[in-house]
Amino acid sequence: MEMDDTTQQVESGYVQTVPVNDGGLEEAADTVDEAVAQACAKLGIEELDAEVLVLSQGVTALPGETVSGSRAKVRVWKMDALTSHAREILSGLLDKMGAEATITARRGHLGSHPAGDVPPVILDVSGDDLGLLIGWRGETLQAIQTLIHLMIASDDDSARKVYIDVERYRLRREEYVRSLAHRIAQRVRETGERYVLDPMQPYERRVVHVTLQEEEGVRTESTGAEPRRRVAVIPTNPENATRRPGSAYGNRSQWGQGRRNGSHYDR
Amino acid sequence: MNQYEDLVRFIVDHLVEDHDSIEIMGETKDRGTTLRISVAPDDMGKVIGKGGHTIDALRTVVRAAGVRNHDRVYVDLNEPERAWSGATETTESWDEDDFAEEGDH
To answer: In the β-sheet with A121-126, what is the strand arrangement from edge to edge?
Structure first.
């Protein structure tokens, strides 16, 4: 990766590459909100038009405690035209759905995105009682995402990705799915037997694939048809198994959801 | 029920090219409201989407909007005769398969 970027260690532990001269402005303050407000004032934009990357949450001092050197740090950009358009349409849609919500824009992780590309933007929807916008297993959120993509009608395939999140559901699911993937990989290595996960949203399946790409001894593939498409975790060296399948916490393939092993979903 | 009509119109309006041909008819019965969408034949594909993906998403969103008020809201698309009889059959047979699978406990 050739670049004149700075690489910064972000609080959550992953290394994030932040382009320096792309109009973003870095600000520090006692809280994230204050830092964002400061940056917006300097950029001369409304907070509604800001795209924010939180570099450090800062530490909140308890009463009577003095905390030094732990300020909140953010980088703020003026929202680009596509994001602004997407936000307007999303805001219209939520309004018509009868949901009272605030939408803020967060800059996504560079993660597995090609170097040089602008990282995706996440439109964070927050408010009271927004469970309806998420739905069963994120079904409604996924539907909103699908519609917004089509409604912003960008014919440009290389256009920046716009994701939608409600009450950080996607973020929380992502963390859960990642830890689940590691757990299942461990088990598959031990038993030498493949394991088929419950059906997941396309985005979540992608998280499993990406997470387990680097794990030794397992590979992943998707099987079945939407909306019951699932990820199978498959041992690459089944002869290294240390535990008999079906022992210990039991292999769910004997009961319950695993009964469908061998059905057309799994092929 | 106007709120749901507004919602559907808002979505469909952003999907199609021929905005003037959009018609939405609401019909309320005991078991809920059905909104029938008509669009220009050339725009049908945009509202249905690949494998019905778009219309499914639209139905999910409208259903979710109804849940808040304990309303059952269904969405149907008026299909012109000539358009796509084959695709409907595919959907039905898939549903049957799926049902058989679920019932086989």
So the answer is: A25-29, A72-78, A50-56, A102-107, A121-126, A162-166
- Please state which of the ranges A6-10, A17-21, A159-163, A248-252 shows the lowest mean pLDDT: A6-10
The Cα–Cα gap between B7 and A96 comes to 5
Nearest to A232 by CA among A243, A244, A241, A223: A223
| Contact criterion met (CB < 8 Å) for B61 and A263 | no
Residues of B with CB under 8 A from a CB of A: 3, 6-7, 10-11, 14-15, 46, 49, 51, 53-54, 56-58, 60-61, 64-65, 67-69, 97, 101, 105
Is B3-80 CATH 3.60.130.10? no
Distance from CA of B30 to the nearest CA of A (A): 22
**Across chain A, how many H-helices and E-strands are there?**
6, 11
**Confidence class of residue B29 from pLDDT cuts 50, 70 and 90?**
confident
> Could you tell me which of B84, B73, B70, B3 has the C-alpha nearest to residue B41?
B84
pLDDT digits (tens, 9 = 90+) for A186-205: 999 999 999 999 998 887 89
- The Cα A225–Cα A200 span in angstroms is 11
Please give the pLDDT value at position B90. Answer: 43
Q: ipTM of this model?
A: 0.76
Domain ranges (residues) in chain B: 3-80
Q: B56 vs A139: CB contact, 8 Å cut-off?
A: no
Residues of A with CB under 8 A from a CB of B: 89, 92-93, 96-99, 132-133, 135, 139-140, 142-144, 146-147, 150-151, 153, 226, 259-260, 263-265
Q: For residue range B58-70, what is the model confidence (pLDDT) as tens digits?
A: 999 999 999 988 8
